[in-house]
């Protein structure tokens, strides 16, 4: 029995609308797979790992799996070509005939962008002085000789 997808198999990067409470409801497809709800039947439902648009995979945003049946609409279709058809055929073959031995890939775990903590950003001397005495620049204009302590 050959397995068949019940829904369109979306390309990576597709933007989909889900009925959730994330604001816009828009999510980007980050990874793809499939789910076979009944082993007695040949029907397979596309399954996607999604992240909120415009963030995608971000350390402070949740990514989660959804079935194609959870998608309310496709806002943008991601790129697909012949390689996607081969990927899908291989996926369905493995679902039907079992997993082949694989070599585990190394996953990137660091952040893509280095963003310093707010407390790590040093304040300039002038900014610190302005915060301590908001009138220090005016005092310098009135007393140009630079006498400190004159009020």
Automatic annotation (TrEMBL):
Q: Which InterPro entries does the entry link to? A: DUF4176
Q: Which organism is it from?
A: Leifsonia soli
Its protein name is DUF4176 domain-containing protein
A Pfam entry, by short name: DUF4176
